[in-house]
Specification:
Blueprint lengths: L1 E5 L3 E2 L6 H19 L3 E9 L3 H10 L3 H18 L6 E4 L3 H16 L3 E11 L4 E3 L18 E10 L5 H10 L4 E2 L1 H12 L5 E2 L1 E2 L7 E2 L2 E6 L1 H6 L1 H8 L7 H4 L4 E5 L3 H15 L6 E5 L2 E3 L2 E2 L10 H8 L1 H10 L7 E2 L2 H31 L10 H7 L2 H10 L3 H22 L1 H4 L6 H22 L4 H10 L33
Helix pairs in contact: 2-3, 4-8, 5-6, 6-10, 11-12, 13-16, 13-18, 15-16, 16-18, 18-19
The structure holds 5'-O-[(L-methionyl)-sulphamoyl]adenosine.
């Protein structure tokens, strides 16, 4: 089966922060998990380079939009290997191939009769690049996200006849209750639609930094329409000589933050309908990482730089933390202090210790040779159905839920070591069979959790795989007892303690 997952494409008006890394890590976890299951995966990310947010930022910095885009796009591109994102392509909306494909699709929308010329009058946030409706406005005509004053815009634009899709969108939501996930976001999108849809601006005439409207060269497309199409256009040129649209379109998952719900859950499906293209299967809407109670954002200035965290703790720790402290789908606060506490208590003490303790005991008592004996029914039971459970959760992009299910088994294994106390058994020759069973059972558990944690912690699990004698980590071996190890090396601390 094919699996196509995307992140939002990032604005290039400033450098990346942890909030951006968050969307990308989530998508990466899904991509890695599906590859482990042997699926045909395509994972897309990239940068959103046109439009007012970038034009304004460039003006402020005294540079050109192209220069700013080149500089910041590179920073997002560089972020990907740092967070171990395994994207198959990195799109830039300034790629000429993208612009051309946008023109083709929107020409079709035009030719299908969903575009007309009209006059826009209303409120606009230049940071969101969003025309706000009356019920999206904060007191004092301010943007509810950026808290800046909205501008009153009046211009002659090309319009997209969104209102014509009212009924079709209502039907889509009624027929596909998991089109948008989680449930509360589905409800939010659905009530936005049932509130009545108004037509939206498709072009801007007062801006030149954008994709030219093919039927009216005085206009460029409103940035959101060009940006949304990246998910489709990228497939047409990501792989020279091959049109990947046949293999991967429609997308399985668009991962997005809640601030861009309206565009992805309302405008995007309507636009695809207007162009006669198949719709994505799911849009997963995650919440915000908050710092001091506010959305971490470049305009508010309260950002955590993922590079700083990775330099000190490694990217696995960051990837783990993002989905451990805040449940994926909800908003939640993050802080350096909470990060360090979880690093210490869960990564170093629980997981790291489990790996070093058990492999060290095996080395000491059995020369690293895994006893070939029956596994303890207590652990057989504790792991029963785990592989299926994790896969089912990740099929719904429940990244935190799946991690929690795995972590409960990490804890169970630690408890098992404490209960069986192999160091006591080792003192009594008569208890050798019990020691054999305890060691074999816990090592098998370590293999299973290592396999399941591959998408979350690609680095550390690769180290563990080597120490465990190189077992195949394909998902088909996820069941407890499915693949018994023979020889295991001692594992050095996976998450060294940080003393300063
Ligand atoms: N360019 C648009 C998306 C176009 S997609 C066709 C955009 N870019 S963005 O750079 O502002 O945001 C990209 C993603 O990062 C969004 O999903 C946004 O929700 C996410 N995050 C930015 N700050 C965030 C947090 N503090 N917390 C979690 N995610 C947030 O929007």
């Amino acid at each position: 089966m094919s699996f196509y997952v995307t992140t939002p494409i990032f604005y290039v008006n400033a450098a990346p922060h942890l909030g951006h890394a968050y969307s990308a890590i989530a998508a990466d976890i899904l991509a890695r998990h599906q590859r482990q299951r042997g699926e045909d995966v395509f994972f897309l990310t990239g940068t959103d380079e046109f439009g007012e947010p970038v034009a304004l930022a460039a003006e402020k910095l005294g540079t050109t939009p192209q220069e700013l885009a080149d500089q910041n796009s590179q920073r997002f591109r560089d972020l990907m290997p740092r967070i171990d994102a395994s994207n198959d392509f990195f799109i830039r909306t300034t790629d000429p191939e993208h612009g051309k494909a946008v023109q083709e699709v929107l020409q079709r929308v035009h030719d299908n009769g969903y575009v007309y010329k009209g006059k826009y009058e209303g409120w606009y946030c230049p940071r969101c690049a969003d025309f706000k409706t009356e019920n999206e406005i904060e007191d004092g005509n301010r943007c509810p996200i950026h808290h800046i004053e909205l501008t009153r815009e009046e211009e002659e634009n090309w319009f997209f006849a969104l209102s014509k899709f009212q009924e079709q969108l209502e039907r889509l939501y009624a027929d596909q209750p998991d089109f948008v996930m989680p449930r509360h976001r589905y409800n939010e999108a659905r009530s936005f639609i049932s509130g009545g849809l108004q037509d939206v601006s498709l072009s801007r005439s007062q801006l030149t930094w954008g994709v030219t409207v093919p039927w009216d060269s005085e206009h460029v497309f409103y940035v959101w329409f060009d940006a949304l199409l990246n998910y489709y256009t990228a497939l047409s040129y990501a792989k020279p000589g091959e049109d990947l649209r046949e293999r991967f379109w429609p997308a399985t998952f668009h991962i997005i933050g809640k601030d861009i719900l309206k565009f992805h859950c309302v405008f995007w499906p309507a636009m695809l309908m207007a162009a006669g293209l198949p719709l994505p299967e799911h849009v997963f809407v995650h919440g915000y990482l908050l710092l001091d109670g506010e959305k971490m954002s470049k305009s508010l200035g309260n950002v955590l730089d993922p590079n700083v965290v990775i330099d000190r703790f490694g990217s696995d720790a960051l990837r783990f933390y993002c989905f451990r402290d805040v449940s994926f789908g909800q908003d939640g606060s993050v802080s350096t202090l909470q990060f360090e506490q979880r690093y210490e208590s869960e990564l170093a003490n629980e997981f790291g210790n489990l790996a070093s303790r058990t492999t060290n005991m095996l080395a000491r008592y059995r020369d690293g040779v895994v006893p070939d004996v029956a596994l303890d029914p207590a652990l057989v039971e504790a792991f029963a159905g785990l592989g299926e459970e994790v896969a089912a959760l990740l099929d719904r992009a429940e990244v935190s839920g799946a991690l929690d299910a795995i972590w409960q088994r990490v804890r169970r294994l630690n408890a098992y070591v404490a209960e069986t106390a192999p160091w006591q058994l080792a003192k009594d020759e008569a208890k050798a069979p019990e020691l054999d069973r305890a060691l074999a059972s816990v090592i098998e558990g370590l293999r299973v959790v290592t396999l399941l944690l591959v998408p979350y912690m690609p680095d550390v699990t690769a180290k563990l795989q080597a120490a465990l004698g190189g077992p195949d980590l394909a998902y088909e071996h996820a069941a407890y007892g499915a693949q018994r190890l023979t020889k295991v090396d001692k594992v050095e601390p996976l998450f060294p303690r940080k003393t300063e």
